[in-house]
Amino acid sequence: MQLSPTILSDARGVAAYGIFFGSYFVFALGKFPGLKIDRPGAAIIGAVLMVAFRIMTAQEALRAIDFSTIVLLFSMTLIVAHLHLGGFFTWVADLTVLRLNAQQLLAAVVFTSGILSAFLVNDIVCLMMTPFIIRVTRRLALEPLPYLLALATASNIGSVATITGNPQNMLIGSVSQIGYLDFFIHLGPVALLGLLLDWALLHWIYLRHSSPGAVPASVGGRLPTHRPTMKPVVVLVIVLGGFLIGVPAALMAALGAAALLITRTTEPRLVYDEVDWGLLVFFVGLFIIVGGAERAGLTEKLLQPFVAWNLHHVWSFSALTALLSNIVSNVPAVVLLKSLVPGFPDPRIGWLTLAMSSTLAGNLTITGSVANIIVVERASPEVHVGFREYFRLGLPLTVLTLAWGILWLSLMR
């Protein structure tokens, strides 16, 4: 018995709806209830089903993947892995936080993590810095919570500044073709004032009643500062220079990663162990899922109700992006919303708004950003970061930084 084309088309449409909403359900919760299926797993399952149900062909699935984003993310991860193995993060932390008292330490954590996250992937900065923050605060007899919150929130805010700050910015940079320097000029001021707001709020909530002299400026038993391996640092400077002069980001990062893999001292297995393979898998599957949904006309139907919001305005598009980013996480939100931006009167401001609002919205709750989750999970054996405690800082910080970002981009039009 041969089914009619109309029935087959309807069946594929139903399958596309089921796959899309099932996948985004897992993206929102972080895992499938009762099963050990996480976000990367759901992304791969959804991508396979999109092809298996013939919603798209294998060739169309491959075309849906933005390989520039994958190459940039993978290459930057390799560069950061070499920096970590070469002692770069320990060296920076030694220089910035080990010589300071409680009042100075908070500002040092905010601006160090923010600046590092502006040029390196913020998730990795949090991964490297969390254990160090706990050790330093214990040594100074300080409560670690404010400094862990500073690390998580500042890494999100700092990552707004550049294309390489976080995964969603890498995707936006690849799709929009906005230059690295242009991106930085527009969103760097958002990050800078955002970091100042973050420091001010943290200080007001946690340190305003403490005396500057209550904690000693130095503590005995400090480890000596060791210089990092210079090759990764030199390569990073060259790569960032290439970004600034207009070399395509994916190509420049790939050249830097390739140069670092030519080595006589670093074991390649140690480098590959540092790569977040799950994030790369997540991106690949997500591209295919959304590509299949677009082919089935699903994304157009889902986003149609929001057209009446006049989304080409910075404030309305920011509100939608922030809302969706806190429901399904910022990367899935960006992949879904990116189809709207080319239709805006000023697509460039639209892309910058999407980058700004999806990133800053991640500070609202613990689950709003992968960087937040990394800090909480890495700290959990020693320090408990509760939802309410985080939200106490996250709500005013997100409102203030988003308001500043919206105002700034509105003035830059």
Summarize the structure.
The protein is mostly helical. 72% of the residues lie in helices and 0% in strands.
* Oligomeric state of the chains present here: single chain
Bin the helical content: over 70%
Global mean pLDDT: 86
- Number of E-type strands: 0
The helix count comes to: 20
Q: Kindly report how far apart the N and C termini lie.
A: 60 Å
> Taking Cα atoms only, what radius of gyration do you get, to the nearest Å?
22 Å
Q: How do the SSEs run, as a string of H and E?
A: HHHHHHHHHHHHHHHHHHHH
Spans of at least 5 consecutive residues whose pLDDT stays below 50 are 213-223
**Major β-sheet profile:** none
Helical/strand content category: mainly alpha
How much of the polypeptide forms β-strand, as a percent range?
under 5%
Shape: globular
Structure description:
It contains 20 helices and no strands. It has helices at residues 5-29, 39-52, 58-64, 67-85, 88-97, 102-119, 122-139, 145-159, 167-176, 180-207, 230-245, 249-261, 268-274, 277-295, 298-303, 314-328, 330-337, 347-360, 370-379, 387-412. With 413 residues, it is mainly alpha-helical. The radius of gyration is 22 Å and the shape is globular. 72% of the residues lie in helices and 0% in strands.
